[in-house]
Amino acid sequence: MPGKKALSCASAVLVCLWMRPPAPAAQSQKSLLLGLASISGGIETLYVTKKIGAFKRNGLDVDFLLLQGGSQALQVLLSGEIKLISGGGGTAAQRARFKGAGNLLVATYTPTMPYSLYVGKRISNAKQLKGGKIAISRFGSSSDFAARFMVSRLGLDPAKDVTIMQIGNQRERMSALMSGSVDGSVVDAPNTLIARQQGFVELADASKLGLSYPHNNIAATERFIREEPQTVFNFLRAFVEGIAYYRTHKAQSIQMIKEFLRVSDNAIAEEAYDYYSRITPAKPYPNVDGVRGVLEEIALTEPAIQNARVEQFVDSSFIAKLDQSGFIDGLYKNK
After folding, report:
1. Is the dihedral of CA 318, 319, 322, 326 positive or negative?
2. Which pLDDT tens digit goes with each residue over 53-101?
3. Angle (deg, nearest 10), helices 266-279 and 44-51
4. Burial class for 217, CB neighbours closer than 10 Å (0-12, 13-18, 19+)
5. H, E, C per residue of the chain
6. Nearest Cα to Cα of residue 187 among 172, 156, 159, 266
7. By CB distance 3.0 to 4.6 Å, which of 67, 165, 269, 310 could disulfide with 72?
């Protein structure tokens, strides 16, 4: 049963998710706390990894700590209070890295923004969206970035052909769409199911349009990588095993999604599974193209970052070792 575990933190109150499946007998386990920037779609792959015992098979006793967003996740990582986080892909993390912080991405397991553009039934193509209003959370957010990307890929100019409106969270954006105060909204999976149930239509899916972005990642510090490379390797070895199980065991994974996201609706869990199992890579290399895009975004206001090499922001060596050894491919044989 999930519960709470205290962690000393000078800067914030942290809530620990104590999700511990039955442990197999016998071997010394290294305790490791993984910080989660959020509880959302895609992150359930980590829960699946834990539930199937993959971490323990690799000598790790992993617990999850729910943090209050990406900024706090980066803060506790850089402070050394937590050695690994799920997060660390956005502008704040890459800006910190450019300025000398020790954070590095060692894996990316959601290499795109999990957003779609939903519109009312009267709109059946991009031309009919021209002059319309599109709901996002706030300017500068990932939903804003995804909306502008999708509108551009649909052949429209997001600065001239549509009006991007700050509406708020997913619930508020859906309400605006239902009331007719906007013509379209950015919707994330599995809320895409709710949008369809309300009669709205998907006009675009950012992942299918080729949006590359380091959305869900595993990040560590240079110091931890240098001092405990085997721990990082064991964690990622377990994680790719968990990803393989997730991608090849739909029914069992849907049940775990319900547990992790605390939903009772099978259809919502299946919507999440169908979306994230499609976009979660078997070989979760750090998303170099996505990081490059983040750096380009930062460069609009901080031109100096154009001189940075994208390799400064990632460490692909662990996934490369697992890949080149044949371990990952072996997980999918006879599946």
Report:
1. negative
2. 999 999 999 999 999 888 899 999 999 999 999 998 988 999 999 999 9
3. 100
4. buried
5. CCCCCCCCCCCCCCEEECCCCCCCCCCCCEEEEEEECCCCCCCHHHHHHHHCCHHHHCCEEEEEEECCCHHHHHHHHHHCCCCEEECCCCHHHHHHHHCCCCEEEEEEEECCCCEEEEECCCCCCHHHHCCCEEEECCCCCHHHHHHHHHHHHCCCCCCCCCEEEECCCHHHHHHHHHHCCCCEEEEECCHHHHHHHCCCEEEEECCCCCCCCCCEEEEEEHHHHHHCHHHHHHHHHHHHHHHHHHHHCHHHHHHHHHHHHCCCCHHHHHHHHHHHHHHCCCCCCCCHHHHHHHHHHHHCCCHHHHHCCHHHHECCHHHHHHHHCCHHHHHCCCC
6. 172
7. 67
For 18, the token pair is 């104590």
Q: 201-259 pLDDT, tens per residue?
A: 999 999 999 999 999 999 999 999 999 999 999 999 999 999 999 999 999 999 999 99
pLDDT tens column, 299-323:
989 999 999 999 999 999 999 999 9
Q: Which residues contact 262 (CB under 8 A, 6 or more apart)?
A: none
Equal CATH topology for 15-112+213-331 and 115-205: yes
Query: pLDDT tens for residues 255-280?
Result: 999 999 999 999 999 999 999 999 99
Strand order of the β-sheet with 201-205 is 163-166, 133-136, 184-188, 115-119, 201-205
The third-level CATH classification (topology) of the domain covering 115-205 is: D-Maltodextrin-Binding Protein; domain 2 (3.40.190)
Residue that is written with structure tokens 């969206």 in the block: 129
Question: Domains of the chain: which residue ranges?
Answer: 15-112+213-331, 115-205
pLDDT-based confidence at 112, cuts 50/70/90?
A: very high
Question: Does 3.40.50.2300 match the CATH number of domain 15-112+213-331?
Answer: no
